Amino acid sequence: MTIDSVCTYCGVGCDISAEVEDNKIQKISAKEEGTVSQGRLCIKGKQGWDFLTHSKRLRNARVRKSFWAKNVSLFADMDMDYLEPVDHDFYEISYESAYELVARKLRSITDEHGSHSFAAIGGARTSCEGSYLFQHFTRHVVGSPHVDNCARVCHSPSLKGMRTTIGEGAMTNPFDDIYETEFMVVMGSNTTEGHPIVANRMLDVIKQKEVELAVLDVRRIQLSKSATHHLSIPYEANLMMLNMMAYVIISENLVNTEFVNTRTKGYEEYKNAILNDPYANPEFLLQVPGYESLMNEIRTVARKYATRKSLFFWGLGITEHLDGSYAVMAITHLAMLTGNIGKRGAGLMPLRGQNNVQGTCDVGMLPYFAPDYQQPKEEGLMTPDLIDAMVDGKIKALYNISEDIAHIHPNQTKIHAALSNLDLLVVNELFDNEITKFADIIFGVKSAYEKTGVYVNAERRLHLSQPLVNVMMPDDWEVIAEISKRYGEDFGCKSSRDVWEKVRIDAPRRFGGASYEKLEANRLRGLQWPVQEEDMPVLHIDTFRTHDGYGTFHYHQYAPRGQVAELRSDGKHEGYYLTTGRILVHYNNAAQTKACDKLNRSHSEDTLLVSVEDEEFFEYKDFVVLKSQYGQSAPLRVKVSSTVKKGTLFTTFHHAASKINFLFGDECDELIKTAQFKSIKVEVIKPDYLD
Fold first, then answer.
1. CA 441 to CA 423: how far, in whole Å?
2. Is the dihedral of CA 270, 276, 281, 287 positive or negative?
3. Residue 210 neighbours by CB distance under 10 Å
4. How far apart are CA 118 and CA 388, in angstroms?
5. Do 158 and 169 meet the contact criterion of CB atoms below 8 Å apart?
6. Positive or negative CA dihedral for 157, 160, 165, 171?
7. Angle ∠(372,376,377) on CA atoms, nearest 5
8. Which residues contact 69 (CB under 8 A, 6 or more apart)?
9. From CA 350, how far away is CA 315, in angstroms rounded?
10. Which of 169, 379, 431, 657 could form a disulfide with 159 if both were Cys (CB 3.0 to 4.6 A apart)?
């Protein structure tokens, strides 16, 4: 039997087809008629399903023994079905008992400390139905405004930057517009590793149509081998390089004046700011030793972008910086300056990370947006502020769904202290991971391959999943609904379809016409929101999705810092700058991919890439420890590479044992508090066992 569904990994959101016998997956592939996959899947899509049957899969509900003992008086009258020891720390209990435990303890906390003492984080790994009900429960049942999701550590700056300038924080064009473009810019995205099925399209047009590609990154990536232009830029210099592109376009009269005059406002002020900004003039690069050649290279890229039908792609290498939101605004400025938006083959392409992070934001799992990006009655705290509130004892209870904040967030020393300070931590998960080590109550839940639900990929495409195999665990939304019943409100939802009908009512602008029936009829194509009678593949064709229909220029000047400031003042920098990223076979905290034997065998540890120019320093250092002012890593295996420049380092963060995110602190985007994961100064020290 063949079952069509959607991949559970990255924001590309590939359609998949599974061959299933006796409730077991035999093989996963993709059909050629699949709009996203085109019949091609990456290794995670093809082989990343073993986790479903892994022996350590969470298939029950659990309560921490110490939590039970501490709260025994609160639960004294409960008729527990069973209370079986699992290990030293946990009992296994029935789901019914676990629902009651959560409801009682949560109510006791909010009765004593108020509803704002509760927060909900996560949801981007679950369906839209799960995320929607999660935020609805938090806001309208418990009465807390504190909801957030993993966009906080990835593309929240894209949402902020794009909404500020063009009114909508989502990809403007479908992936297939790559076949209609004349020029591509990729900045801060290792696309072949992070979004491989999108990279396939890029490679197709490079080979078949000789479309040119420019890659801007702090290191050489795989895609650089196929690029016409590769620009190795300094750390923390994104905004500077983007403003330089705008400077070239304006100063060389390459502006699409008709588009600017009819579709935008604020241009004259923006133009004057750019032309009078010394850091926007490419000649400033002559003051940055080792990067002087960029002066002419950035001019060439700007000219080609302005004079051709162009697509601009970016990832976390743009957003995970102090000025990530401003850098995204600078990208949208380039599109408005040149008219490279609102048409096929030209637009803005933020490459979303998780399989449903776009949908999770769309349905209101953000502290400052209700469903459909409407204004909530009350704004809540963003995750970094929630962590501080936990440390201070103001947040007493946290419900976390499928976001391992005890691994993938920055400043792990503080986060671990925050989680330890809670009176209640509830977690929905597939496996034990770093956050379950702090949990009081754990719900083992269905994965995306075991349930029905809507997922929205990076190009705004809704796909309706269906179970590949049947299991007895509940869906995330079912757990929330059952707790809500015991909290005093019954949502009346018997199926995910019932939840989705509530989503369509609360988010009509995007999902009003996207019925299950329509999604089922378009299972391999999906539908791109906004969906009414038809869907809308390309945004901003006639007007921008702002209140008045105009795009607005919002200039922000780059301020030299970090590597640029050091090179400019001293001609060199001491120590090393570290950046982090993904590798093809793993996904984020690797909870699922580590449980897939073929994938984990190919990358069982995080490795540190060092420059060939620094080979002498690292000679005889097979393993090193990285240290920052916030913490230090575990010993990392060293590998010499030609992809990184002198004085710079790269590593992945998939394995919690590496402790990479202990290195990062609270530095973040000043508007939206996304962490500065892509640049930190580190000291290289030897492991303790060598002392």
1. 11
2. negative
3. 8
4. 14
5. yes
6. positive
7. 150
8. none
9. 6
10. 169
Paired residues of 683 in beta bridges: 627
CA 511 to chain centre: 22
How far apart CA 83 and CA 21 sit, in angstroms, is 35
- pTM value is 0.96
Please list, in sequence order, all residues whose beta carbon lies within 8 angstroms of the beta carbon of residue 505, skipping any fewer than 6 positions away: none
| Residue 597 DSSP code | H
DSSP H helical ranges for 560-596 = 562-570
> What does the block give as tokens for 292?
């002087």
| Strand residues in 499-597 grouped as ranges (E) | 527-528, 551-552, 576-581
**What pLDDT, in 10s, does the model give residues 441-499?**
999 999 999 999 999 999 999 999 999 999 999 999 999 999 999 999 999 999 999 99
Q: Is 302 helix (H, G, I), strand (E, B) or coil?
A: helix
Token pair for residue 50? 């073993």
Supply angle C-alpha 297, 299, 305, rounded to 5.
105
Amino acid found at 386: L
Mean pLDDT computed over 643-670: 94
Could you tell me which residues come within 8 angstroms of residue 272 by beta carbon, excluding any fewer than 6 positions away?
none
Q: Is the pLDDT assigned to residue 600 strictly greater than 90? A: no
| Contact (Cβ atoms closer than 8 angstroms) between residue 539 and residue 545 | yes
Residue 125 phi/psi, 5° resolution? -100, 0
Phi, psi angles (nearest 5°) of residue 69: -65, -40
Any idea of the CA torsion for 127, 62, 432, 429, to the nearest 10 degrees? Answer: 0
Condensed to tens digits (0 to 9), the pLDDT of residues 120-152 reads 998 788 999 999 999 999 999 999 999 999 999
Quote the tokens at residue 317. Answer: 């290498």
Position 646: which residue type?
A: K
Beta-strand pair 90-93/212-217: unpaired
Q: Is the pLDDT of residue 689 over 80?
A: no
Query: Contact 98/124 with Cβ under 8 angstroms?
Result: no
User: What are the angstrom distances between the C-alpha of 334 and each of 279, 318, 337, 371, 556?
Assistant: 17, 15, 5, 30, 14
Mapped onto helix, strand or coil, the DSSP state of residue 579 is strand
Residue pair 469/20 in contact (Cβ under 8 Å)? The answer is: yes
643, 220 Cβ separation under 8 angstroms = yes
Task: Give pLDDT tens digits for 492-529.
Answer: 999 999 999 999 999 999 999 999 999 999 999 999 99
Query: What per-residue confidence (pLDDT) applies to 691?
Result: 54
Rounded to whole angstroms, the Cα distance separating 662 from 631 reads 5
3-class DSSP state for residue 576? strand
Averaged pLDDT, 599-618: 90
Left if phi > 0, otherwise alpha if psi is -120 to 50, otherwise beta: which for 162?
A: alpha
**Which of the 8 DSSP states describes residue 369?**
B
pLDDT above 70 (res 292): yes
Torsion region of 23: left, alpha or beta (phi above 0 gives left; psi -120 to 50 gives alpha): left
pLDDT in tens, 60-119: 999 999 999 999 999 989 888 789 999 999 999 999 999 999 999 999 999 999 999 999
pLDDT surpassing 90 at residue 588: no
Q: How confident is the model at residue 6 (pLDDT cuts 50, 70, 90)?
A: very high
Nearest alpha carbon to residue 97 among 377, 443, 562, 449: 443
Indicate the DSSP class of residue 132.
H
Q: Which residues, 6 or more positions from 616, have their beta carbon under 8 angstroms from its beta carbon? A: none
Instruction: Name the residue among 170, 171, 174 with its Cα closest to residue 35.
Output: 174
Q: Which residues does 501 contact at the CB level (< 8 Å), separation at least 6?
A: none
Can you tell me the distance from the alpha carbon of 474 to that of 578, in angstroms, rounded to the nearest whole number? 41
Distance from the first to the final alpha carbon of the chain: 59
